[in-house]
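Blinded run. Sample ID left blank on purpose so nobody reads anything into the name before looking at the predicted structure. Input follows.
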Amino acid sequence: MGRAASTEEAGWFLVGPKMANALTDPCRARILMELSVRPMSPSQFAEKVGGDLSHISRCFRQLAAWGYAEIIEERPGSRRGASIEHVYSGIQRVHFDTSEWDGVPHSEREALSRSVLESYFSRITEAIEAGTFDDEVDRHLSWDSVAVDRMAWEQLVTRLDQILEGLPELEVQAARRLLEPGEKPIPATVGLLAFRSPQSPEVMLKAPPRYQTPPDLPFGNSPFVLTPKTAKALSNRWRSQILMELNARPMSPSQFVEEVGGSMTHIARCFRQLAEWGFIEVVEERKGGRHRGGIERIYRNTQRAYFDTPSWETLPRFLRNEVSKSFLASFMERITEAINAGTFDAEVDRHLSWKPVTLDRVAWAEITTCLDEILEWLPVLEAESIKRLEKVENFIPATVGLACFRSPW
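Blinded prediction complete.
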């Protein structure tokens, strides 16, 4: 939901003032998301997503009347008493530019965001269940938290907008190459998110950096890459989620249990294990603890962990799947946290988009490389922001999520 793509590009539709509020209806938004993946009838939508069929049917008819969908097939109704079942296909994808998005009431923006996110994570779930999510060893899946100033935030959102706007042309180029003998299509889903985190920038800036930074900047040491030996340990859901949470801010085991969940005994053991393996360290000890206990230990990551492609390729398939699920669970927790705190839509130019595309191997490599570059760019944006800003309270605590994976179809 960043700036809209050019209206000259086929398949894109810029929302005008009269249509903005109508299209923020969560049901219509979810229908549009589903139709961007495959044709569907109202009854199929109701079975897959849920909802009142009469209301869903009305939403389908409205979208068709407005030119966002069209009937491509009429067949005998599958439900008892139904005469004709209409199958719809999406014609155009809806994109709000920032000015129109700003004019939509906050409550409606939030409802639409939830709908888009639900459809996005439904797409991810389908890929995991179908076994395609980790089919490509160079698939991209990452999320990170950084504190940036307004200039860096605008640079980041603009770059995500550019990637979204470039996908149709990338798909056209891939289609031309796929005409050559031997070329095989890759059905892919690309997801891009950037939103305000609920944590304070002061807390976020205490997290360790992922990459080596110039010596004049207040950062830590060089990165480490997770090896296959440690990957098995980190595929545990709770240990992985602890690492993700500590990327954003220091935390104690009891604080983790209160904010995220889990058994206190098990979570405390996971914290101790990660400390023994050198992934995290105690930065503070508080007497009395959060519940008048003995000593409460506050941990932070020693460095930010990540997989390089060679290490990822050596992992067995089942282990890649487990690590992916852990990382996704952590990311979903972060999104839920931001929505519940009311920060997800706090920036009107926040970015939220996902798009199914058909690529060839060249286009796939181009988009995954682009996402890798953005991930590597995030610490640079934070470092440049620190140089420009003196008051930490003026930073924007941001969470960025990037994904490109093989779709089930």
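Unblinding after everyone has recorded impressions. Residues 1-18, 210-224 have pLDDT under 50 and may be disordered.
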